[in-house]
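Collaborator request, handled under Task 6.
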Amino acid sequence: MESRLKKVLIVDDDPVLRRFLRTYLVRYGFSAVTCGDGREAIAVLQAVDIDAVITDVRMPHADGRTLVAWVHKHRPHLPLLVMTAKPSPRVRRELGQRGVVAYLEKPVEPAHIVELLRRHGEGIRNAGDLRDLELLAYLDNLLLTRRRMVVEVVSAEGRLGRIFVDEGALVHADFGERSGEEAFLECLSQTRGSWCARPWVEPPLRSVARGTDELMIEALRRHLGDQRANWETHRAALRSAASRLPPDGTRR
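Structure tokens returned to the collaborator:
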């Protein structure tokens, strides 16, 4: 299976590991750029189009957490894979809130990295602009088909939100510093920006307590600016938005 993620940035202060991972990824059809610390990586990201980042945590000059924070702010749609020799539940939670899709304990199996990159490359097919009811229709499709997915939302100002859908239920959302139901509604209230579906990862917490249908109706009302709107009377609008998506729920 060919990945849509072509160019990968590998960041680690161990030159042997950098060379090994680069050689392995090239063998499987990726191109790779390597850096020895977060400061170098940020310079590369500012100059080169990169599709995914693999980084260590502990490095000189600028460490992996600094790099993750920069990517979260400036390149929020980039898949981030973090490697560490000293895993920490606290750091895992912190990085998860900043959009890290995998937190891997060293030594890392390179075949697992290839699998993760391919999975997240497939997720790029499910993407679109924050316009009309397209995102709401896509979420409706996820819920009806009881799929597990993380949908990332990036506002026109570059703020990142995430919606976690687990087998027919909304279980968590975050947007900027907010989390829970208000974060979900904030994600759906954006009218400019973009959205992108990613493969399922466990959320940092399960923050949504209200019923899924109730939240979807509230999102619809806010989007339309009509407090009388209800789910059934606006199914036609959702079907129209969904008609722009192929049968598997991805955007044409």
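The cover message to the collaborator said: "The two ends are 20 Å apart (CA to CA). Residues 127-242 form one domain. Please let us know whether this matches your experimental observations."
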